[in-house]
Design a protein that fits this description.
Strands 3-4-5-7-10-11 form a six-stranded mixed sheet, with helices on one face. A three-stranded antiparallel sheet has the order 6-9-8, with helices on one face. A two-stranded antiparallel sheet has the order 1-2. The chain is globular and about 50 Å long. A hairpin with an 8-residue loop joins strand 8 and strand 9. About 3% of the residues have low confidence. Helix 1 runs parallel beside helix 2. Helices cover 21% and strands 21% of the residues. It is an alpha+beta fold and 189 residues long. The chain contains three helices and eleven strands; from the N terminus they run E-E-E-E-H-E-E-H-E-E-E-E-E-H. The longest helix has 22 residues.
Length: 189
């Protein structure tokens, strides 16, 4: 149906992907690369892969390009030696960021995350993937949520609801694009 090239590549403990991968190229061939939704029989899908999920700019660009829902295939987890409070904070921040993307863009968000343990090839503790795949509505509400076990998560998504929510909360309309020029800079002076 289309292709998407992961735009943001992580470089942190457990995910040293910058040694192996190059970020996607927004100027690549038609139908691929950049933040371009994929037209399918179920709607226009804004696919953003794993590390891309942390960047509100990607979600917004997909929404502005006409995505009708955002999809986040993900492999994220925690270090098994971390304290439970730290694990909870990390997972909660992950879910909160997805809820924020749903609300800010008035779109459903579907996130599917890996489960299980992967040992580290370097002898470290490895990664426990926390699962918690979920389907969110355009106001960030949970429509369906999985736990930490392998699960087939099915949910019915009202694709007409986004338009109704965007009439209540017209965030895309009311943006001050005249004041956002500095967003294309790494830092402000």
């Amino acid at each position: 149906a289309g292709k998407y090239r992961k735009m943001h590549i992580p470089d942190d403990p457990g995910y040293y992907e910058k040694f192996y991968f190059t970020p996607g190229d927004a100027s690549s061939d038609a139908g691929g690369g950049g933040f371009t939704p994929i037209d399918t029989s179920v709607g226009r899908l804004g696919v953003l892969v794993c590390w891309d999920q942390w960047y509100p700019e990607g979600a917004r660009l997909m929404a502005l390009a006409g995505a009708e829902l955002l999809l986040y295939p993900t492999a994220i987890g925690w270090d098994p030696v971390d304290e439970q409070d730290e694990k909870d904070r990390q997972r909660d921040a992950w879910v909160l960021s997805h809820r924020g993307h749903a609300v800010a863009n008035g779109l459903p968000v579907l996130s599917c995350n890996r489960v299980g343990h992967e040992p580290s090839p370097l002898g470290a503790s490895g990664i426990d993937f926390w699962g918690n795949s979920h389907v969110l509505g355009p106001q960030g509400e949970f429509i369906a949520e999985a736990g930490i076990e392998p699960t087939i998560l099915l949910a019915e998504v009202d694709m007409q609801r986004s338009e109704r929510v965007r009439r209540i909360w017209p965030f895309l309309r009311d943006r001050r694009i005249d004041a956002y020029g500095d967003l294309t800079r790494r830092y402000r002076d």
